[in-house]
TrEMBL record:
A GO molecular-function descriptor: transmembrane transporter activity
Protein name: BCCT family transporter
Membrane topology: Multi-pass membrane protein
Keyword vocabulary terms for this entry: Cell membrane, Membrane, Transmembrane, Transmembrane helix, Transport
Transmembrane segments: 20-37, 57-77, 97-118, 154-172, 197-222, 242-260, 267-287, 326-345, 357-375, 413-446, 458-478, 484-504
GO cellular component: plasma membrane
Annotated family: Belongs to the BCCT transporter (TC 2.A.15) family.
High-level lineage: Bacteria, Bacillati, Bacillota, Clostridia, Peptostreptococcales
Cellular compartments annotated: Cell membrane
Keyword set includes Cell membrane: yes
Source organism: Romboutsia weinsteinii
Amino acid sequence: MQGTAGKVKAKDKSKPSSSLFWASACFTAIFSIWGVVNPESLTTTLYGWTSKFNNDFNWFVILMPLLILALCVYLAFSKYGNVKLGGKDTTPEFSTFSWMAMLFTAGIGVGLVNFGVAEPLTHFMQSPLGLAGGFSQSEAAQNALKLTLFNWGLPAWAIYTIAGLVIGYFTYTRGAKFLPGTPIEQGFKDKKWSKPIAYLANLMGASAAALTMAASVGLGVFQVKNGLQSVFGLNLEGITPLLIILGILFIVYTLAAILPVQKGMKFLGDVNIIIAISILVFVFFAGRTDFYMGTILTTLKSTFTDIIPISFENFALLDKAWFNDWPITTLMWWVSWTPFIGIFIARISKGRTIKQIVTASILVPTIFLVVWFSVFGGHGLLDAIAGNAEIANYMINNPDDVYLSFIMVLQQFPLFTVTGLLFIVLIVVFLSTSATSAVISLSMITSDGAEDAPQYRTIIWSIIIVCIASANLIAGSFSGVKAVAIVLSIPYLFIFILCMSGFIRQLRKDHGGAR
């Protein structure tokens, strides 16, 4: 397949253009300042638009991941499955373990801890398939894990995987640029509208990446604070400790970003997955192993058998509050991450076939997440049903600080000093891997798609993200920034569909099929 690279002009080695950088930086700054000065106005305005979209198109959003998953399966097991990113003679740059560790930690990030206990308990109490819907406690618990894995399992990884495949094919197999809009510009090069739409995709992709990552980093600061207070009994009230934590995170992810991927991101990814597995194994054997094992098997079954029923359920006759706030918002959040996650997945997947990428990057993370949520989320559900419901009651009384629920699970086991310390390290590294992948992708996007973007641009985006996060920490609200990211995902959803269409169109041209 090396010959197809000649169909695209060789990458320009001259100094990268700064137009996209300044456009995306200004766009990001406008909404960031609005979010700091008047977060309530920004949130109200943008969530109004989001609510309109959710109410009109939630049926499509809930069905979309199933269609993308079907596309991924088709690509993997069709004649295209053996197509290798970079050509048949290209070899992978990273070991399978390091590749999976980087892909997993960049794609899921701190949300694995933030929502590991909180989300199953929320669905258990509030969803139409939970206690609020009149189900028994045991039924509500099973449904809660089923709904959680729908949000985090196959649908999420199908979205990420196709994003990586689309970018990777055009960049490594056809020699195009690392840009979110490349599949549109190259896949529809015979259309006059392809270039302006591609530029719009690049602009929205960069802006969404900066804002979503700033929100994730800022929210993660509170998790680190909770961990430090719980493990060491420190008094970290006020803004100063939060800014110090943010500064430490900034140093870690900036250093990882400016180092070669083989050193910085690879090291963080390996450390992260080892710590996560260590905490998981400890809780699995220190707690109700029989209950966890049964929950894992039940959840594993429902993850694969219930994806079709859930994809066709939009609770048409019920109140849409929970439905729009959880499945729909979560799926759109994944879409808002695709511009930089797709580029990062492509960057680390050179030399692997479409079949390898689809099977590994969808199945392995999904199975790990089944185990993770079944153990930690399952423990929270067990505490709510057969324990003193301490965690569930805390979440009810503190709806804005549900992130403490994960630490509360660890506190119910021995050796909390050790597991709590590991928890803090895990949060820091999770945040750093996600932020590192974001700033690497951002610097590539705003350096005209250069694979090895200038370090100074990586540092600039690193500073921009920490400035947005610190401004919102001082303002005391990330709702505005999160609202912008979610709103940007709405038009980007349709751009994402265009990217997939351009990919299929080009794939059929290159390997036979209708033109």
